[in-house]
Every structure is written in structure tokens, then in C-alpha cells.
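Quick one:
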Amino acid sequence: MDFFIVKILGQLAMPPGPMLILMVTGLLLLRRYQRAGRILLATGFTLLLLFTLPLVSKLLIMNLENTPALSQETLGQSDAKAIIVLGGGSYLNAPEYGEDTVGSATLERIRYGAYLQKKSQLPVLVTGGQVYSWIKTTEADNMKRVMTSQLQVPVKWTETRSRNTWENALYSREVLKENDIKKIILVTHAIHMKRAIMCFEAAGFEVTPAPLGFHSEGGLFTIFNLIPDAGAMSRIKQALHEILGILWYKLRYF
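Output:
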């Protein structure tokens, strides 16, 4: 039950929810408590504006995307024995496919995982279960199907029990323990890599990180980073999700 409570509270804490709550509360207070109402309205509006600025999103994300991309040299010298690709969400009841399939974030991860497998010839483990009971297929099963049938990359292991990054690491360790594999190449998005490394190292793995999908690249103080953009709020939401996730994991698991 606590897993679902955490999911719900996490969603409520994400923008633009808190800003809208501040603004609505401010409007309700205006008639009787004008000063307090105006403060809440101004605070909500200011935060809403700040959270649409690409500059703010980049400043937040830079502290999370602190693991560099995996170089060809590092890949060639790596003594890893397997590649682990983390699930990033499913596309449920996809009408164009007539079934559940991988979501956009997961597709990016398995594409990069396939690229690394072809470069290294290492065996692949995909990890991701059914976050909610009503979901028909696990993330890992969707990942394996797409990797094998569309990307022509073999998947040796599927881990289908996990519901979050901590469980990704824990259950992947159980799968690979039979083969005495501790050294891995870990594939996930750059913004998520910090939390992923924390979990997989705690599970006993020696991690060579392979992050993808960087958002913090490019100039910071440019005119375009000062123009409000809806995409910036989406990226800030991802960053806050990771920051809160790291804090929660340290309280819950470490």
C-alpha cells in the first residue's frame, strides 16, 4: 500500500499542481484576507513562470546529469559481463499495434542498449515489471519483444518483478547471481543515472554507467533559455521527480 501512496503523493507534489493550489487558495482568500491572498497569488504565478524557463530546468538538471556519456574507448576497455537496460514506462493498449508496447522513454533506452550490445557482444538483461496490477504485460516483456523482433538484438534475461529502480537493482542481482555476474553496463537516461547507480551499487554491482538523452548540454545563458517554454516545465518535473526520489530512497532503503 505504501508504494501506491508514495506514487500519489509524488504526483501531487509535481508542477504545476502546487502553483495552481497556491493561486486558487489566494483567490479564495482575497475577499476576507486581501494581503495573504495577494501574496499567495503572486507566489503561485511567479513559481509558475520560473518553472517554464529553460534556464531553470537546465540549472536543476545539471546537478543530476553529472555522469558523462560512455565513450567508445571506455566501452572497449570495459570488463563488464552484461548490459542491463532499465524500463522507463509502457505504452498501454497501443491502438496502432493492438497490444501494450514500450513507451517513448523505454524505446530510447532499448535502442541505446541494442547499439551497445552490437558494439560489445555482451548479453542483455531487461528489467521492469507491472507497476500496477491492471497492466497486462510487464515492461521487460515489452522490451524483449521489441529488441528481438525490431532491433534484432538477443535478450538473455528478463526481470519482470520490479516496480521501481530499487527493485530493478535488487531483482536483477538475483537473476545474475546464478551466473556470478557483478560487473555491468547500466543503461538509463542521464537524468535518472544518479539514482540508478546508487541502487545498483548498493545491490552489489560494479557499474559502468551508460547514460543517454542528455538535457543539460548546450549554452546556459542564452536568450532562448529565458523564453518561457512548456517543455521546460516537463523537464523540471523530471528533475524534481529524481531529486525527491533520491531523498526518498535514502530514507526508505539506505
